[in-house]
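Re-running Transcriptional regulator, MarR family to confirm reproducibility after the cluster update. Everything else is unchanged from the original entry.
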Amino acid sequence: MTMQRNVPMAQTDSADAARSAAFMDSYLDALNLVERLHRLLLDVIKDEFERLGLLELNPVQALLLFNVGDNEVTAGELKSRGYYQGSNVSYNLKKLVEAGYMHHERSMVDRRSVRVRLTEKGRGVHMVVSRLFRKHAEGLIARDILDLDGVEEIATALRRVERYWTEQIRYIY
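Result of re-run:
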């Protein structure tokens, strides 16, 4: 704050307004980038599945199988982890069970609750997506696009934004 003592008030306000506007522009650019990256990730998965001839799954379903992995979960757990919206996860789980990618079983404790886990067919899809992500990670490193420190910095910043947004939602209700 000592630097601002010698700066006229109007100049300080102008500089603050310029910094605020620059931050807003960068924030909106980052939001657009996150949205585009998510859509692009789905396109990358779709292209890989088309290349392999796995046409009965959409990219969201493939990502859902990847995220379930070796776990046994409920739809509610997938929603609470922040992966999927309510109707979206229920619809996709139903389709994945019908297609033989997931096994479902009613909870003995709460008959309303259904637990799901991957079948052998579902584990195969999990492996395809896992190999795809591993190949991408290796490519990012090999082409000097991103290293461990860079990816950790991105993840840390995104987690902070996630916490902030979560707090905003909780504050509303």
